[in-house]
Write a structure and sequence with these properties.
single chain, 264 residues, alpha+beta, 7-stranded antiparallel β-sheet, two-stranded antiparallel sheet, 9 helices, 9 strands, 27% helix, 22% strand, globular
């Protein structure tokens, strides 16, 4: 859950609007969860309508407007400043067709109504971004972010450590289960776990279960990824998926492939 806040904090950097911080996005979750639990105990189910949202384009390279792609071949461009359609197409080319239709979105725009300028963020990796996965009437999300050594040190006070056992820390979180850590060639370490997302906060959204991952690299950088079943409430694009859009094996293949790494 903390990783989600971190990822949205990165997306909110430079927005100049405190209302669009990750804390604001998740600040109301506890109240929503409490209302849901109370409603369930009283046998009353709150039904949240899924609202469609279209983010207007501004024509910039970092435009996070949705770009629907069912399947597409790799583009000649691998720059982090590639267009949303190009990133979504290259991501789709790395995955099997049955994952569904993929589009790049902005969670800040969907949930908080941020403008394209407010939602824009720097990208270190060529596929860094937030993507919606549409399948069988539901909508899930994939959030992928590369943090270099400097970014990790600014956030935690030290570089990412491949030898750190994240499963020990994850085990202390009641919402996090099924943690697996794998040492990879080249001094890398991949940790994945399931997160129920049944945590405190106070927002107009409620997140569904997720499969989270962190790939720590020997240079002190790390990839953070969330494969989410989706969310309900403000800005929802559709019902939750029954399972995260990408499996554990698919996350590993994606994170360990050269396509997510910056050139050079």
């Amino acid at each position: 859950m903390n990783d989600v806040r971190e990822l949205l904090d990165r997306a909110a950097e430079g927005a100049g609007q405190p209302a669009f911080s990750a804390a604001a996005v998740y600040a109301k979750a506890a109240r929503i969860r409490r209302r849901r639990r109370a409603a369930a105990s009283a046998a009353v189910l709150a039904v949240v309508a899924a609202g469609a949202f279209t983010l207007p384009r501004t024509g910039g390279d970092e435009d996070p407007a949705p770009a629907s792609v069912a399947s597409a071949g790799p583009s000649a461009s691998a720059s982090p400043s590639a267009s949303a359609a190009d990133r979504a197409g290259r991501l789709a080319a790395l995955l099997p067709p049955d994952v569904g239709e993929i589009e790049e979105v902005s969670l800040l725009a969907l949930i908080k109504g941020a403008t394209p300028e407010q939602a824009r963020t720097a990208r270190l990796g060529p596929l860094d971004g937030q993507y919606a996965f549409r399948r069988d009437g539901g909508v899930g999300y994939l959030v992928l972010t590369l943090e270099d050594r400097d970014a990790v040190e600014r956030k935690t006070g030290r570089p990412a450590d491949p030898d750190e056992d994240l499963c020990v820390r994850v085990g202390q979180e009641p919402s996090r289960t099924d943690c697996e850590r794998e040492a990879l060639p080249g001094g890398r370490a991949l940790t994945t776990w399931r997160d129920t997302m049944d945590v405190g906060g106070d927002d107009s959204v409620g997140w569904g279960p997720e499969l989270a991952g962190r790939l720590v690299q020997p240079d002190g950088s790390q990839f953070l990824v969330r494969s989410s079943t989706g969310f309900e409430g403000t800005g929802a694009q559709g019902p939750l998926l029954p399972e995260p859009p990408l499996s554990r094996a698919q996350l590993k293949e994606l994170l360990t492939g050269p396509e997510v790494q910056p050139k050079g």
